[in-house]
Write a structure and sequence with these properties.
With 185 residues, the protein is α/β, with parallel strands linked by helices. 45% of the residues lie in helices and 10% in strands. The chain has one domain. It has 7 helices and 4 strands, in the order H-E-H-E-H-E-H-E-H-H-H. Helix 2 crosses helix 6. It is globular.
């Protein structure tokens, strides 16, 4: 299975560099070739990053659908759940598609919308062994800042990503994201 993932190409929309670093390491851990990953990171200091991803999402879905003959192409759009949570964030993306005149994503499409809740730091800390962190609280300041410690922690967290055969994860947003990411595999 990993051999066929080497040929998959992914367009990835993320809010910030930490999300980008985690998704990059996770996809590499799952067997993707680094050169087949194209990241679009929300520009810092230009408004809400989650709104930037939400705004760009319909254009990327439209572009993906126009290249539907390219079966090895996929899209992942990641936005922190913050105070609104997984379901609301996913519904917002569905609303953006409808507002752009597009139909909702179909089960067979390689489109994933994982939502780290409260934020990516909650996932990272959980994957590094912190049990049952509340998803209604931010842990942004509990994770190492950019640098070697952050890189090592993100690499280790990506390696701990649950496989489909694993038991149900204690973090509901990771459990939901596991199903989302399976859509692009």
């Amino acid at each position: 299975m990993s051999a066929e993932r080497r040929h998959l190409r992914m367009i990835v929309l993320v809010e910030d560099k930490r999300q980008e670093r985690f998704v990059r390491r996770l996809f590499e851990h799952l067997g993707f070739e680094a050169r087949n990953l194209r990241f679009n990171i929300a520009p810092s200091g230009r408004g809400a990053a989650e709104a930037w991803v939400r705004k760009l999402y319909p254009d990327e879905v439209r572009a993906l659908r126009s290249r539907n003959y390219q079966k090895s192409l996929g899209l992942l759009a990641m936005r922190d759940g913050d105070a609104v949570g997984v379901t609301a964030r996913k519904l917002e993306l569905d609303d953006e598609l409808r507002a752009s005149g597009l139909e909702a994503r179909r089960a067979e499409e390689r489109i994933a919308v994982p939502v780290p809740t409260w934020s990516i730091e909650t996932w990272l800390l959980h994957l590094l062994g912190k049990e049952a962190l509340p998803e209604y609280t931010t842990f942004k300041n509990s994770f190492p800042r950019a640098g070697e410690r952050e890189r090592s922690a993100i690499q280790l967290a990506a390696e701990q990503w649950p496989r489909p055969s694993d038991e149900v994860c204690a973090q509901p947003s990771i459990e939901d994201a596991r199903a989302e990411i399976e859509r692009v595999l």
